[in-house]
Amino acid sequence: MIKLKYGNTNTFFIQGGSGLVVDTDYAGTLPAFYKALKRNNIKVRDIGYVLVTHYHPDHMGLVGELMGQGVTLLLIDVQKDFVHFSDAIFERDGLPYVPVDEKQAAVISCGESRAFLKSIGIHGEIIHTPSHSENSVSLVLDDGDCFVGDLDPFEHIEAYEDNRALKNDWEHILSLNPKRVFFAHRPEKILEGNLPLAIKM
């Protein structure tokens, strides 16, 4: 796994038989994305798929442009109705943005994700973690790396009066035995021996 930092949102490149990018930054950051690839000796042709943890503008701004270069969007079925959520925001801001053509995406369910990921040489699964937004998903790899986008850290569970949704998400993630959690806007977190009693499995 290679972390690509070129804006405000952490992007991750996961090597497999076909490379997978998790999240992109805002529209207009493509030149910085190219520079980040070059720094890490990655070429666009090394990227087979892009997965968006949720369709807020700071996570999917480059997806349409990457699709135009041959990268396939891995679209989870619970996300289908949200693909164009950010279009009006980019139009308002006057940014260079290519809308996503979901007809060209590979659409799968979370239940199908393990088999699909295995077919591209990546071992893990994608799960629905909707406490941040209804279309949010997380990727948990069998090697222990976990990518959660904007999911609130588990330390925040007790800060909310109604924390059931966040607690459910973390219980689901922890059931898959992650070791490192990677956030879109926070430092990574090592989980081993560092879990609050409230959500220990």
Oligomer: single chain
State the strand order across the main sheet: 1-2-3-4-5-6
Distance between the termini: 27 Å
Topology as a string of helices (H) and strands (E): EEEHEHHEHEHEEEHEE
* Helicity range: 10-25%
- Poorly predicted ranges: none
- Measured on Cα atoms, how large is the radius of gyration? 16 Å
DSSP strand content: 15-25%
**How can the largest sheet be summarized?**
6 strands, mixed
Let me know the number of strands. Answer: 11
Task: Please identify the structural class as seen in this structure.
Answer: alpha/beta
CA-based shape: globular
DSSP summary: helix tally: 6
Overall pLDDT, averaged?
Answer: 93
Commentary on this structure:
By secondary structure, the protein is α/β, with parallel strands linked by helices. The chain has helices at about 30-40, 55-60, 65-70, 85-95, 110-120, 165-175, and strands at about 1-5, 10-15, 20, 45-50, 70-75, 105-110, 125-130, 135-140, 145-150, 180-185, 190. It has a 6-stranded mixed sheet with strand order 1-2-3-4-5-6. Strands 7-8-9-10-11 form a 5-stranded mixed sheet. The protein is globular, with a radius of gyration of 16 Å. The protein starts with a strand and ends in an 11-residue tail after the last strand. The mean pLDDT is about 95.
